[in-house]
Amino acid sequence: LSQARAGIISTVEVLKVMEAFVNEPNYTVWSDLSCNLGILSTLLSHTDFYEEIQVFVKDVFSPIGERLGWDPKPGEGHLDALLRGLVLGKLGKAGHKATLEEARRRFKDHVEGKHILSADLRSPVYVTILKHGDSATLDTMLKLHKQADMQEEKNRIERVLGAISQPELIQKVLTFALSEEVRPQDTVSVIGGVAGSSKQGRKAAWKFVRDNWEELYNRYQGGFLISRLIKV
Fold it and tell me: Which of 9, 189, 208, 209 is found 20 to 30 A from 80 (Cα to Cα)?
């Protein structure tokens, strides 16, 4: 990938190598593949190839997704749980039909209290339903955030809110980032989530940071959070 980014080899060669990992069982390898595909998706979001790279993501990740399934198997280790969350989140964001349908079903049961989602599945389910959700979906997530009695759950929700796609809802998430509902040290995570989720999100987050620069600068002064904000 580094060679492709430097223009030394074709990105097609990178994709061919990625395809060869389709039977890979190791979480660390898939995490690296996921990160690299994320970089490619970001670069291609400004081109006509964005939808095609999402199809590629579905093709590469669906076999391991089918093998892992949604529920833990006897004798599984911690890395298997991490891998399941990574793969389902990747498939869900890419719009994999079966993953999206199951995420919506499990989210509905979770909200209604019928079957609470395990901690490992919450982020992938949340990001999937938000990516393909509407204003009602966002309102439900904000309600879950308000009701959460553990800070870990609040942070989990804050990190994925930016996955929402519609421009007016992206603005709602950015406004939420500076509200009293979010701890000052967590505001950057919400804005970063918006910036990292889509082309529209990046533009909106950049404008939001510029428009609110004085408040953000005064809030963080010269601390590491302001540099992290600029980086994202």
Answer: 189
